[in-house]
Design goal:
By secondary structure, the protein is of the alpha+beta class. It has 8 helices and 8 strands; from the N terminus they run αααβββββαααβααββ. The strands form 2 sheets. Strands 1, 2, 3, 4 and 5 form a 5-stranded antiparallel beta sheet that branches. A 3-stranded antiparallel beta sheet has the order 6-8-7. The radius of gyration is 19 Å and the shape is globular.
Length: 228
């Protein structure tokens, strides 16, 4: 892969050119279509997988076979946390939301970099783990909430990078998911998701176009202003 791809991730961009080249030679690009499996719980996890483009859903299976979303990883986040914990097997399942590209770096290469330049590995690991922990903490806060609250939490994780505006300005979502997709992400059925989206739209918290969510109110907003 090219060192230029690495510089799109803040943690890698801080590395000196020489170390960037070493990492780029060891790393590879992964490409996954929407819905594709990146890994399953119990699979060997020899690589650190960083999301370059798209979003990755991490989830676990409940005893009754339902999927429970445990995190949505944005670009720049670490999709596989288990390797940095010293685990040899993945602790969650992961699937692509939209088209996903990843940087997959074998752990020996990452640790070799850390041995040669220990001061570089520590901030890299802190930055990646902090990025992931923020996403997990926000989703965990709404884990016991109703479907509408979970929908808002998921949609806010899918806001397009760089989207900004006032408190009452809708943030565009980066990918359009079907109601069936949103049902899987929130642990609900499709009919409930459709009903909740209509309620959220009536409350001014999401914007719909032909049933698809195209905008979502930022965290803390009471409602959205009128469409432009």
């Amino acid at each position: 892969m090219q060192a230029l791809d690495l510089t799109r991730v803040a943690a890698f961009a801080a590395l000196p050119p020489r170390d960037l080249t070493v990492v780029a030679r060891a790393a590879r690009i992964g490409q996954y279509p929407h819905g594709a499996c990146l890994f399953r719980a119990g699979d060997p996890c020899p690589d650190a997988i960083v999301v370059l483009e798209g979003f990755v859903r991490r989830f676990r299976l409940s005893p009754d076979g339902l999927t429970i979303t445990t995190g949505i990883v944005r670009p720049g986040g670490l999709a596989s946390l288990a390797p940095l914990r010293g685990a040899t097997a993945c602790d969650r399942h992961a699937e692509a939301l939209g088209r996903v590209r990843t940087i997959e770096l074998p752990l020996p290469a990452l640790f070799a970099l850390g041995q040669r330049a220990p001061h570089l590995l520590a901030p890299l690991a802190r930055d990646l783990i902090a990025h992931l922990d923020r996403a997990y903490a926000e989703l965990a806060a709404g884990a016991g909430a109703g479907v509408a609250a979970r929908l808002l939490a998921v949609l806010r994780h899918l806001i397009s990078a760089g989207a900004d505006g006032g408190a009452d300005t809708a943030r565009p979502v980066a990918i359009r998911l079907s109601h069936a997709d949103l049902a899987r992400l929130t642990g609900a059925d499709r009919a409930t998701v459709t009903r909740c989206l209509r309620t959220l739209a009536a409350r001014g918290l999401v914007r719909l176009e032909r049933g698809h969510v195209v905008g979502v109110a930022p965290a803390g907003a009471e409602r959205l202003g009128p469409p432009p």
